[in-house]
Write a structure and sequence with these properties.
The complex is a heterodimer of chains A (about 120) and B (about 110).
Chain A: E1 4-7, E2 10-13, E3 19-25, E4 31-37, E5 43-50, E6 53-57, E7 64-70, E8 73-78, E9 87-94, E10 105-106, E11 110-114
Parallel strand pairs in A: 2-11
Antiparallel strand pairs in A: 1-3, 3-8, 4-5, 4-9, 5-6, 7-8, 9-10, 9-11
Chain B: E1 4-5, E2 10-14, E3 19-25, E4 32-38, E5 45-51, E6 56-59, E7 62-67, E8 72-77, E9 86-93, E10 103-104, E11 108-113
Parallel strand pairs in B: 2-11
Antiparallel strand pairs in B: 1-3, 3-8, 4-5, 4-9, 6-7, 7-8, 9-10, 9-11
Classes of the chains: A mainly beta (about 120), B mainly beta (about 110).
């Protein structure tokens, strides 16, 4: 009964490849997020979706494209992978976008290594 | 431009003593603050939060203090237990932005020694 799940947990791939990371939440939340934790351990927001609508799109390269088929899923597709994309990617969800406490629930992370 | 800063990368305390983790922020629009705890190979888990209309929030062994004039918050854990050893992230949001965006500090690694 995992609340926020991500697959895969580990992903090792070559430069130039295209890969996807999947995220699912069974909490009934309206909002989902993608974060990147780089080698310096900073957790930075990349995208957020509210009821399948894109809300936040930080200055992320166009090679990164989130897709939300429904409000329980937010997938992250990365084209033409580069060495600098190596990081841990966390998916998160929260009950609502605004108007109340914004406690976000995180998945276990996907460690992406680009060789 | 790091809007949320945790200037101590690590902290070591003895079991049973108090752990104090600090966090500073620069954006006066932030009105909601959260602490997350993270174990290795796991995602961050929510610990405790505080709204800017309060200066203290307590939940069991965890208390968060907010000093708005100093733009400073701290997390107190008392008594500290070995299971508290983890990375602690401070986060802030401006709820008026209606984006749900959280800005995280870089984390403080807490080690509680038995």
């Amino acid at each position: 009964d995992t609340a926020v799940s991500q697959t895969p947990k580990y992903l090792v791939t070559q430069m130039g490849n295209d890969k996807s990371i999947k995220c699912e939440q069974n909490l009934g939340h309206d909002t989902m997020y993608w974060y990147k934790q780089d080698s310096k351990k900073f957790l930075k927001i990349m995208f957020s979706y509210n009821n399948k609508e894109l809300i936040i799109n930080e200055t992320v390269p166009n090679r990164f494209s989130p897709k939300s088929p429904d409000k329980a899923h937010l997938n992250l597709h990365i084209n033409s992978l580069e060495l600098g994309d190596s990081a841990v990617y966390f998916c998160a969800s929260s009950p609502q976008l605004a108007g109340g406490p914004n406690e976000q629930f995180f998945g276990p992370g996907t460690r992406l290594t680009v060789l | 431009d790091q809007q949320v800063k945790q200037n101590s990368p690590s902290l070591s305390v003895q079991e049973g003593r108090i752990s104090i983790l600090n966090c500073d922020y620069t954006n006066s629009m932030f009105d909601y603050f959260l602490w997350y705890k993270k174990y290795p190979a796991e995602g961050p888990t929510f610990l405790i939060s505080i709204s800017s209309i309060k200066d203290k929030n307590e939940d069991g062994r965890f208390t968060v203090f907010l000093n708005k004039s100093a733009k400073h918050l701290s997390l107190h854990i008392v008594p500290s237990q070995p299971g508290d050893s983890a990375v602690y992230f401070c986060a802030a949001s401006a709820r008026s932005s209606n984006t749900g965006k959280l800005i995280f500090g870089q984390g403080t690694t807490l080690q509680v020694k038995p």
